[in-house]
């Protein structure tokens, strides 16, 4: 869909607007949504326009796009995914929203948003709600969601690491943990070559290898179908970036990054034994940071950490010296 198109037909919120607070649904164009996501700064892939389109193709969930107004200006946005079946069943998914466009949003605005969500999607038989708020795991935030009748169903919230790419290259390298930096130094002496794929010609190759990894190592990850559709809706804007490390002309490692306005997400990675020996992942991630900086990307979400079930991956990602964060968990 061209950027000048509208998201969907506008809808009313059902919430009486006031000069101070209002929420409008599907009231902006695709271009405007992209601009608002960029304004949010530390945005996430799940609130992006391409993600809504990919989920529509894979799960038949339709995106609804909320703009949150305070004092006459948009201060927040949130994408909600819905599916209605047989006029009875109703799925509602809110993944990693809302995103706020300004710091220090007043408590009344947060409360107004969650009151609107509860009013628009009240709990009822055959409505299956799943909310994963983009909120730090604090007692105050738990109390806020409980106030509006939301029940915590999973105590372990999404954890990951943000890397601030606005810093100079020298600072980013200095911030690397010493063992990570030493390993990077080793990788740069192994004769690795970098290959950039912005069209997805190597995507099926990477997905087959990563699926084998998921089976062998028993971890979950995005489905190949979802990733393939994400490529479809990002590559024409240059927001798809597959990087391969080559050793003597053979691919020994790869990472896949998706760009979403001013931020990016590390989504898929793979290493062969030769790649592990050559420290290809250190090489690829470092070169990935530099490539993102060249593309004016300010933030990178390292794609999740799990200190309990994936200690090695968590240790590796923490070595990049970013800022860890944990969200509040899932609710219904």
TrEMBL record:
Residues 181-306 form the BioF2-like acetyltransferase domain. Residues 1-20 are annotated as: Disordered. Pfam families: Acetyltransf_6 (PF13480). PROSITE patterns: FEMABX. One of its GO terms (biological process) is regulation of cell shape. InterPro entries: Acyl_CoA_acyltransferase (IPR016181), BioF2-like_GNAT_dom (IPR038740), FEMABX (IPR003447), PG_Glycine_Bridge_Synth (IPR050644). Gene3D superfamilies: 3.40.630.30. Keywords: Acyltransferase, Cell shape, Cell wall biogenesis/degradation, Peptidoglycan synthesis, Transferase. One of its GO terms (molecular function) is aminoacyltransferase activity. It comes from the Bacteria. Belongs to the FemABX family. This is BioF2-like acetyltransferase domain-containing protein.
């Amino acid at each position: 869909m061209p950027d000048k198109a509208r998201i969907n037909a506008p809808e009313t919120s059902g919430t009486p607007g006031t000069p101070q607070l209002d929420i409008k649904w599907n009231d902006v164009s695709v271009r405007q949504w992209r601009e608002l996501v960029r304004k949010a700064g530390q945005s996430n892939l799940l609130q992006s326009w391409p993600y809504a389109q990919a989920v529509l193709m894979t799960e038949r969930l339709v995106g609804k796009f909320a703009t949150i107004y305070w004092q006459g200006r948009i201060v927040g946005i949130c994408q909600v995914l819905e599916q209605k079946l047989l006029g009875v069943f109703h799925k509602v998914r809110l993944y990693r929203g809302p995103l706020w466009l300004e710091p220090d949003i007043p408590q009344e605005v947060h409360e107004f948003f969650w009151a609107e969500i509860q009013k628009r999607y009240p709990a009822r038989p055959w409505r299956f709600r799943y909310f994963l708020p983009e909120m730090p795991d604090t007692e105050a935030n738990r109390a806020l969601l409980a106030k509006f009748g939301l029940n915590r169903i999973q105590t372990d919230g999404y954890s990951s690491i943000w890397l601030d790419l606005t810093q100079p290259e020298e600072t980013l390298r200095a911030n690397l943990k010493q063992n990570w930096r030493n390993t990077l130094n080793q990788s740069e002496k192994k004769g690795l070559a970098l290959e950039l794929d912005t069209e997805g010609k190597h995507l099926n190759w990477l997905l087959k290898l990563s699926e084998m990894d998921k089976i062998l190592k028993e971890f979950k990850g995005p489905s190949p179908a979802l990733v393939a559709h994400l490529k479809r809706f990002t590559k024409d804007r240059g927001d798809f970036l597959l990087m391969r490390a080559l050793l003597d002309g053979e691919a020994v490692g790869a990472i896949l990054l998706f760009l979403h306005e001013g931020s990016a997400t590390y989504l898929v990675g793979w290493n062969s034994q030769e790649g592990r020996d050559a420290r290809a992942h250190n090489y690829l991630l470092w070169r990935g940071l530099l490539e993102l900086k060249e593309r004016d990307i300010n933030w990178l979400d390292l794609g999740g950490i799990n200190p309990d079930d994936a200690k090695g991956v968590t240790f590796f990602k923490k070595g990049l010296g970013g800022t860890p964060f944990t969200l509040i968990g899932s609710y219904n």
